[in-house]
Amino acid sequence: MSFVDALECSEPGTLRLVRRPAPVRGPGEILVRPRRVGICGTDYHIFEGKHPFLNYPRVMGHELAVEVVEAPEDSDFSSGDIAVVNPYLSCGTCIACRRGKPNCCTRIEVLGVHRDGGMTELLSLPAVNLVRSEGLSLDACAAVEFLAIGAHAVRRSRMQAGDHALVVGAGPIGLGAALFAARSGASLTIMDRDPERLAAATAMLGSVTAVVADSDADARIAELTGGDGYDIVLDATGNLQSIQAGFSSVAHGGTYVLISVVKGDVSFTDAEFHRREMSLLGSRNAMAEDFSAVIAAIRAGAIPVDALITHRTSLADAADNLPRWAVQKQGLVKALIEL
Fold it and tell me: How much is the pTM?
């Protein structure tokens, strides 16, 4: 029996490199070698014990660029091919899947969350979850999934040219949402409590208004919108207080999209919600068309992948670096594990 190294979160606060039996390719699966693994906010939450849908121990990692090792004879993939991974494994038969929404399948298994993910040397995946990526670098392939989450949220919002949009949170998911909001032709504002993150976001996005999320933020938003609020607000903070505060930034007749997931109950003033006839939307994961939109945008040179990736580590060193990056965010946008 052969073995592979994997980075395991055995319990909140504990990461260790372990030896595990190498996976065996199952029917309809492709054996792959992860080459880049993006470290996501979800991974930091798993490490910190804050994720609501998780059992330990867990091998994390769902933002993947992989190299094909072994594929079925009838597969579109061959040994050596580089691919993006759609990490959302859906059942195909539940009410959500039947309605064409596998991203919120009732029995969904997300790699690195519900089942072990890509922080390992080998992985066997359903062939349908590999996405062709000709022309993309390994780094770009690893960025597709988190960008697709933002693209999906913008698509959910039905944003269009001329809308006034606010993205709250300038982390990787918020930046993805902002990049695709800008591509929609909307007039864009981005807000974060970290001025350094805002500066990085404005450098990437160009024509965007930045607002620091401090005690003056409400007055600044009122000034920018003439007191009307925003047609569309997207929250990507993962912060309960921020989510609840965001309701007041939505214009009458506007839409509020919650991208991030938090533990606990979100509350709002019902009378104010009805007075504005606000639409409240959850946005979960992404779909095949969102992956395609991101890949097309990267190929067109519209996504600054090199600017998004700021930190790198190895599988072995990630056991030390991931816990540090969970608290030391200065200069961090996206960290990659290189295998």
Answer: 0.94
Q: Which residues contact 151 (CB under 8 A, 6 or more apart)?
A: 176, 177, 180, 286, 290, 293, 294
Q: What is the dihedral of CA 50, 54, 60, 65, to 10 degrees?
A: -110
Q: What does the alpha-carbon distance between residue 178 and residue 21 come to, in Å, rounded to a whole number?
A: 41
Residue type, 264: G
Cα separation, 87 vs 130, in Å, equals 9
Closest CA to 307 of 202, 236, 152, 155: 202
Class in CATH terms, 3-132+304-338: alpha beta
User: What is the per-residue pLDDT across 74-88, written as a single tens digit (0 to 9) for each?
Assistant: 899 999 999 999 999
Ranges of beta strands (E only) in the chain are 3-11, 14-21, 29-39, 58-59, 63-70, 82-85, 88-89, 109-110, 123-126, 130-132, 164-168, 187-192, 209-212, 230-235, 250-258, 279-282, 309-314, 334-338
For 112, the 3-state DSSP assignment is coil
Backbone phi, then psi, for 106, in 5-degree steps? -70, -20
Tokens matching residue 157: 């919002």
Spatial contact of 291 and 144, defined as CB atoms under 8 Å apart:
yes
| Region 11-22 average pLDDT | 96
Tell me the pairing of strands 14-21 and 309-314. Answer: unpaired
Q: What is the pLDDT of residues 181-237, one digit of tens each?
A: 999 999 999 999 999 999 999 999 988 999 999 999 999 999 999 999 999 999 999
- pLDDT surpasses 90 at 173: yes
User: Which CATH number is correct for 150-282, 3.40.50.720, 3.30.365.10, 3.20.20.140, 3.20.20.70?
Assistant: 3.40.50.720
